[in-house]
């Protein structure tokens, strides 16, 4: 199973909860899940993994670089698989829905602004808080 080798590569022992949670993050339609979301999805799938275990495993995954944690305003921390592709996020303030986007013009402009200040860009995290038009 691909999950097993991913765990080993990250230096983590293969345990059933770790495999289940990694599979869930890999196959869920929603790429950004809170610990509660993962817990509920596992329950619905008939997998009996406690919420405390889900928290612990997600934190281990974060430390191992398997997932990225986002602390968006006004909600629980959400986790997504670290697949290497840079993207930014929009968060709907009404529903908490997370939308990913990538805009070359914004990326370029951010670099320019940083350089105008005499720095070079190391990393960035752009979050737009949004609401549906007309809602
Ligand atoms: Zn994302």
TrEMBL record:
It is found in: Cytoplasm. The keyword Transcription regulation applies. Binds 1 zinc ion per subunit. Binds 1 Mn(2+) or Fe(2+) ion per subunit. Zn(2+) binds at residue 92. GO terms for cellular component: cytosol. Fe cation binds at residues 86, 88, 107, 124. Its cofactor is Zn(2+); Mn(2+); Fe(2+). Belongs to the Fur family. This is Ferric uptake regulation protein. It comes from Halopseudomonas salegens.
């Amino acid at each position: 199973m691909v999950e097993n080798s991913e765990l080993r590569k990250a230096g983590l022992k293969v345990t059933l909860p770790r495999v289940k949670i990694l599979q869930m993050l890999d196959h869920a339609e929603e790429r950004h899940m809170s610990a509660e979301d993962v817990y509920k999805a596992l329950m619905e799938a008939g997998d009996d993994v406690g919420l405390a275990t889900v928290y612990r495993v997600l934190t281990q995954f974060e430390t191992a670089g398997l997932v990225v944690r986002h602390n968006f305003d006004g909600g629980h921390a959400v986790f997504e698989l670290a697949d290497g592709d840079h993207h930014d996020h929009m968060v709907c303030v009404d529903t908490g829905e997370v939308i990913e986007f990538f805009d070359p013009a914004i990326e370029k402009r951010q670099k320019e602004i940083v350089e105008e200040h005499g720095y070079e860009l190391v990393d960035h995290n752009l979050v737009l808080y949004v609401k549906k038009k007309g809602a």
